[in-house]
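WARN retry 2 of 3 for item q-0093 after timeout on previous attempt; input resubmitted unchanged.
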Amino acid sequence: MNIVSIIGASGAGLYLSIFIKKKHPEWRVMVFDKNKKAGRKVLATGNGRCNLLNMNSKPEDYNHPIYMKPILEKYPFGELQFRLAELGVILTNEGDLVYPLTNSASSYVNLLEEKARQLGVEFVFESEFIDYSVGEIIEFKTSSGSYSCDKLIFATGGKSQSKLGSDGKLFPLLGKHGYQIVPLQPSLCPIKVREKVKPLSGIRHQAKVHVSASGVAIHEEEGEVLFKDDGLSGIVIFNCSAYINRLGNPDVEISLDLFPKVQFATLVKDLEDSAKKNPGFFLDAYLVPPLKDYVLSVAKVDSKKPIEKKEVFKIAKAIKDLRFSFAGSYGFENSQVTMGGISLTEVGEDLSSKRENGVYFAGEMLDVDGLCGGHNLGWCLISSLLIADSL
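OK item q-0093 returned
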């Protein structure tokens, strides 16, 4: 009888245990996790609603588009939907964003764990992985004891949000086993800026965000921006952080167009009309007071004095091109996903190790990360299928 040991009761770990046990009911499948329960990080996804997939995932949504292209062709959305339906998972969607019908991460994790237990998967919780050796069989040690298996699959995630269980502690160990580790970085996280934005903290505003590195445009996206004490946040900013971090901390500038649906010339005319009707407080019709004051300071306009056309022009320019200098990313505790991990050169098409027989890596363990919107949990599912379908 084959024994498969999965290290990590993550989203990828749960999927793996189910798919392998369904395919090989005679095999013994065990899942080890240092936490007291399964799927802790999954519980926090999608604001607790669990954004499982994206109906329109593209290679460009990931950091290695050339690598992802054939994989996404092999596992398009329809195939992923079918595989989940076989488990009894019912999906719903909002645009391209796909959720469990319950809109509850908690219920989804419970469903996966119960499905795994129903199939005969064994769980060993509060069991921290220590080390392993590969010979005719694979032997490994945990805080709960020593074990042996035929297949050892690592699915412990990256280093983001260690309070939810993924602390990155296994990567130094895997480095000692000879694996090339792409340096870990926080991704999908708020960013810090050099400008003093504390007065804006807590303000939300729809904007089109333009990101440039050394004067070259690298990304633009429209969405809600949340101002923080020392930086910017919101899903649109999280995606910007992914593009910025992939460049290795270059000279980056972020520009916000606070009214992207209004042409510059139209905005100038509207502001002129508003200034005539309500001199001294006309911007109150456009921006909340702290953001209004910030825009005026950037434009170097004193609203207490009569507003001339050239000053209206400056205000419009600041509104359509409010610039911030990138000062760094927030840390792993504030990131949704980890960039880096086991280099893709270390694994085969089935995500098996090229160094050690019977060893596999799934999900966020690998140097694959995507943008917000279900792409990363989608990779957890896809990577699990790549492994399970090959066994």
